[in-house]
Amino acid sequence: MRRRDFLKYFTLLGLTDAVTHRGMAMSRMRQQPEQQPRDTVTLFLAGDVMTGRGIDQVLPNPGDPQIFEAYCRSAGEYVQLAERANGPLPRPVDFAYIWGDALTALDAAAPDVRIVNLETAVTRKGSPWLQKGIHYRMHPANIPCLSAAAIDCCVLANNHVLGETLASLATAGLACAGAGADRVAARAPAVLDLPGQGRVLVFAGGLGSSGIPQEWAASDGRAGVNLLPDLSSQTVDEIAGAVQTHKQAGDIVVVSLHWGDNWGYAIPAAHTGFARALIEAAEVDLVHGHSSHHPLGLEVYRGKPVIYGCGDLINDYEGISGHEQYRTELALLYLVTLQRSSGELVSLEMVPLQRSRFRLNHASREDSEWLRSMLDRESRSFGTRIMESEHGRLALDWR
Fold first, then answer.
1. pLDDT, mean of residues 72-100
2. 280 in a domain, yes or no?
């Protein structure tokens, strides 16, 4: 089954729940020990986490399998594709199943904050958006699959978000950024409090280049996503103003961006210019990019990391042909440690993983080396290199 453009999708936006995410309480599966003040903060970051469609069908509470695609009419067909490619899937799987070996890696790293781009609507409601070809939807009763990995913050400024999503995440105690009941709520940061370590502020925005329709932009009195108009200096100034309004001494500021094409390693000059301007003019400590379905090169600008594209972490694309040159079955966990007092990068490590049977598994040494070599090649123009680290991780070398 060949599909070259199967990921330029949109999902119906009908946000009707007046839910604010500012100061949202976090409910974590992991126990938080009483922390002594220290001057570093470690963040786990990931690109697209797509827990809908085929994955939703194998979780304990599958939703309505009907989908409205030219290729498939049932989400169950994506389960069948995966099984043809890699063998039978257990059904139902438990909520932790899809994370697989990533959970062990996260437990070992013990990050202070866990942030993902949630690339699916969490809803039982809604009608299909007729102009688009793909619908990602997860039943709200399957939200424990996010809690199983102790996710703290879901970025929603993307082209796969729906009205019930905000309410469902709020009920589960998950913070979100990039969407809201109106323009103010969509632009507000998620505020993640860290015992004894200050706060992490997560601002999120999306670009039309990622497939977000203009009609989905939040406005005064209308729910939607934080759709950035462009990558101009005026947009940088607006983000800088928002950072200045919310930032307190000792805060770490993350700007999460859903931008650019799904395929290809080239990073537009507009993206590099915008990321650097955010660091220089808006006092942003980390730029977290996603939309590309494979990892992109890494930069460190003025001591601050820029991840232009994290690549997908979780999806149901097994068995779909096309784009094999990008090794779409491979994924990365990003572990970024920053100095809290300055926001400067202390270390950036990546855990190589491989998707099979809707589960994340440790990548083989050969696959890990492929990822290292590719990222090293794509990062050299930024003056950074990718090295092999201990425990099977990859490490960014920027000094």
1. 95
2. yes
Per the structure, the count of domains in the chain is: 1
Question: CA-CA-CA-CA torsion for 278, 231, 6, 141, nearest 10 degrees?
Answer: 50
pLDDT at 16 over 80: no
**Looking at the chain, how many residues does it have?**
399
Residue at 18 is within a domain? no
Who contacts 319 (Cβ-Cβ below 8 Å, separation ≥6)? 1, 78, 81, 82, 83, 84, 85, 86
* Helix 233-246 and helix 269-281, axial crossing angle in degrees, nearest 10: 30
Tokens 């839910």, residue? 19
Single-letter amino acid, residue 165: T
Is the pLDDT at 38 greater than 90? The verdict is no
Please indicate, yes or no, if residue 7 is contained in any of the structural domains: no
Cβ proximity of 285 and 254 under 8 Å = yes
Q: Which domain holds residue 222?
A: 40-397
Calculate ∠ Cα 372-280-376, nearest 5°: 10
Q: pTM score > 0.85 for this model?
A: yes
CATH code at position 93: 3.60.21.10
Contact between 311 and 288 (Cβ < 8 Å): no
- Give the Å distances, CA to CA, from 391 to 106, 109, 348, 366, 368: 13, 11, 14, 15, 12
Q: Which of 81-85, 169-173, 387-391 shows the highest mean pLDDT?
A: 81-85
- The answer as to whether 1 is a domain residue is no
